[in-house]
Amino acid sequence: MWSYPCAGHENSHNSVDEALLLKRKSEEVLFYLNGRCIYLVGMMGSGKSTVGKIMSEVLGYSFFDSDKLVEQAVGMPSVAQIFKVHSEAFFRDNESSVLRDLSSMRRLVVATGGGAVIRPINWRYMKRGLSVWLDVPLDALARRIAKVGTASRPLLDQPSGDPYAMAFSKLSMLAQQRGDAYANADVRVSLEEIACKQGHDDVSKLTPTDIAIESLHKIESFVIEHTADSSASDAQAESQIQRIQTL
Ligand SMILES: Nc1ncnc2c1ncn2[C@@H]1O[C@H](COP(=O)(O)OP(=O)(O)OP(=O)(O)O)[C@@H](O)[C@H]1O
Ligand SMILES: O=C(O)C1=C[C@@H](O)[C@@H](O)[C@H](O)C1
Ligand SMILES: [Mg+2]
Question: Is Iron-sulfur one of the keywords UniProt gives this record (predicted)?
Fold first, then answer.
């Protein structure tokens, strides 16, 4: 069982109605967001779709799942089929087109595909809004994925073997290949940190609402810090994009 050395025990949400806390936080964040889109990035199973839907509802934003938009654009029922009939490269090209189209819109929460972070051009699109990395320990990801199966996730799909062990080993390989790509996000939401703050020894105790609240909190801090001088923050974003493009 995963555990994290942790000193703080806030249990901050225990006595407060989570839904109320979420609502309050979203009202504060809306003021600072000014219609900017939110892009959730993270490994497969990190909760982008689950947490993204909660955030969009509470912010009054529209929710889009970029994998679903690629399926619609290509006219196929699943990402798995697109990989099989075409190729991963074909899927990635369509994923970039979808992100480009979304980037001209406002008031969206977008759950991106787990691999969207690997193409620098996608960061140019996502940097038009705010990006949030849901950083979830690999063993928790593998547990979640083993529970629902890997059929819909072609990079993890295995015909045989223990589902947890297979998912864990494939996710570890992908995480290694992707290196720091997720860390290009404006904000990192670490489940280990939230668990630690709440006095839990396991990230599986965290609800999607806990994670949505922390995401909004981190977005608010980021926006407050970066809107003090908006011309400086535009320049900062541009230099970050240039750096990503040279990697
Ligand atoms: N906080 C959580 N605790 C436990 N299970 C969760 C949590 N968040 C999401 N899940 C479950 O984990 C699985 C993956 O979540 P979700 O589909 O939201 O991830 P994702 O990041 O969108 O994955 P993908 O990149 O493959 O689309 C789902 O079965 C979901 O119900
Ligand atoms: O991590 C990845 O590379 C992927 C994640 C999924 O969301 C899909 O976009 C696809 O299965 C590839
Ligand atoms: Mg998803």
Answer: no
